[in-house]
Amino acid sequence: MNNNILSFKENFTNTKDSKSFYIKKISLKNFRNHKNLNLNLKNSSILIYGGNGSGKTNILEAISLLNQGKGLRKANIENFLNQEKICDNSLKTWGINVDFVSPNGKFNIGTGLKKTGTNKSRIAKLNSNYTPLSSLGEILNISWITPQLCVLILSSMNEKRRFIDRLTMSIDSLHLNRVYKYDKLFRQRNKILMQPNSDEKWLDTIESQISELSVAIIARRLDLLEELENLYKIEFKNNHLTKHFPAVSIIINGKIEKLLEEKPALEVEDYVKSELKKSRFNYDLFVPGPNNSLIEIFNRIDNKNLDISSTGEQKLILISIILSHARLLNDKFNMAPILLLDDIIEHLDNKHRKALFLEVSRHNAQSWFTSTSKDAFAGYPSFIDKINLQNIKENFDGNYHFRYGDI
Ligand SMILES: Nc1ncnc2c1ncn2[C@@H]1O[C@H](COP(=O)(O)OP(=O)(O)O)[C@@H](O)[C@H]1O
Ligand SMILES: [Mg+2]
What we know:
By secondary structure, this protein is an alpha/beta fold. It has 2 domains: 1-10 and 17-141 and 337-407, 3-Layer(aba) Sandwich (Rossmann fold); 156-334, RecF/RecN/SMC, N-terminal domain (Glutathione S-transferase Yfyf (Class Pi), Chain A, domain 2), CATH 1.20.1050.90. The chain is built from 10 helices and 14 strands. A hairpin with a 2-residue loop joins strand 5 (105-116) and strand 6 (119-126). The two termini are 13 Å apart.
C-alpha cells in the first residue's frame, strides 16, 4: 500500500475543535456499491467528496443504520446488499461495523442482514453481543438532513410525523418500537374486521393495546416539543439564538393531543378504546390516533408556515430544527448526535454556508458532509478531514487511514 496515506504534516496544531462523540473506524462489507471499505478517522468533522455515483450517500446511509429504523433512504434491508455478489450464495449478506468513541467509553457496534430460512432481518451487536436495535439509541444518536428529506417532509403529513418520530426516538429509545407495534396491531385489527365472524375478545385485547400505544406515542412527541420549546426560551433569553437559521416552532394538533391537555393519560386511553369499538363496523367513523396528528412547522421570525415558504427557506428551517435538536441532546442529555449532512452545502448561499460551518464546528459530535468537490470547504473554521472517495477506492483498495493534510 502507498505509504503517504499515513504521512503526517507536523504543522497541524488545531485540536481544540475535537469532538467528544465520534466514529473512529467504519467498515462496510457488501453494502451497496462498497464491497469492502474501511475508514480510520479522527475526532473531527468529515467531508466525503467525489463524483456522482461514487458512493458518498451510501456511506452516510450506512451510518444512519447505527440507529433503529430504515436509514436515511428508508430502504428495505435487501436493497443494501451489493448487487454484484447476488449470484454467490455464501456472500448474500451485508454488514456495517463501527468503533464509536464517546465520554461514556468505546463501543464496537455492528449491524447487518441476518437470514434464517426465508426470514430476513436486520440485527445488531454491541461489543460482539446481540442487542435489540432499539438499544443502539442508548449508545449513540444519529441525525440527518438530505435534499430528499426536504422534499418528502413537504409532500406528506405522514413524512412530517415520521420526521418527528425519529427526533423523538432520541429522547426515548423505545419510541420507534411503539410506532411499529401500533402500525402492526392496526393492520391486524383490520384483518380481523374483514373476517365474517370477528372474534370480539381478540378485538378487545388488540384495541386496548392500540389505545395504550396511541397515547404513549403522542405523549412522547409532545414531550419532545416541550423540550425544544424550553430550549428556545432559554436560548432566546440568553441571546444565544443562531442568527442565520430561523428559530422554529412545531405544533401538533389532534384529538388525543387536545385531551391530554385536560385529562390523565388513563382516561384518554379509555376514550380511544371506546372510539375504536364504535368504529369497528363503521368505516367512515374517524378513529383518533398518532397517524391522524397534524403537524405544523412555523418560522418564528415571520410566523410563516413551512409549507408556504420558498424552497431555500424550507431548507434553512429544516437545518434549524436538526441543529436545535442536536443542541437539546447535547445540553440536556449530554449526548450530542452524529450529524449527517448529505449534499447540503451546495444548496446554501455563502452566508448560510459559513453559519452552518460555524455551528457544526462547535457541535460536540462528529459531523459528516458530502459534496462533489472540496472547494466549498476551504473556509471551514476548524479541522475537517477531507476524504477523496474515488482516490481511496481506486488507489488504496478501499482502505483509508486518517492523516493530517490531503492525499
Ligand atoms: N445494492 C447495490 N449494489 C451495488 N450498487 C448499488 C446498490 N445500491 C446502489 N448502488 C449504486 O451505488 C452508487 C453510489 O450511490 P450514491 O452513494 O448515491 O452516490 P453519490 O452519493 O456519491 O452520488 C450508485 O451508482 C448506485 O447505483
Ligand atoms: Mg449522494
